[in-house]
TrEMBL record:
It comes from Blastococcus goldschmidtiae. Signal peptide: none annotated. Residues 35-110 form the DUF1330 domain. InterPro entries: Dimeric_a/b-barrel, DUF1330. This is DUF1330 domain-containing protein.
Amino acid sequence: MAINPTGAGLKHYLAEDPGGPVVMLNLLRFAEGGRETYEKYSSAVRETFLPRYGGEVVYAGDGSTPLVAEDGQDWDAVMLIRYPSREAFSKMVADPEYQQFTHFRSQALTEAVLQPTRPR
């Protein structure tokens, strides 16, 4: 299952850049014990990297029983994170210091969705 952005995915993401801010929808499914491991990653992102790259958490919450969904479409956690631009997000994930924390994210999750959105 997909967990982390790839170089090809980031290249495509930047090529489609309409300009302006981006709100990244994060859908997360945790491995057993992964919530605690994810918090190590999440703390570093919130405290260091979002401020460094102009990002902010718009919403973070735990998933619940889906009202409308196919089997397997329920998620453990949902986040919306706003970045000033697609480039800011791309620079953050390329930051060598940030990359020192990504193993926590990889270990914590069994599946993830990172869906860029933009305001209408």
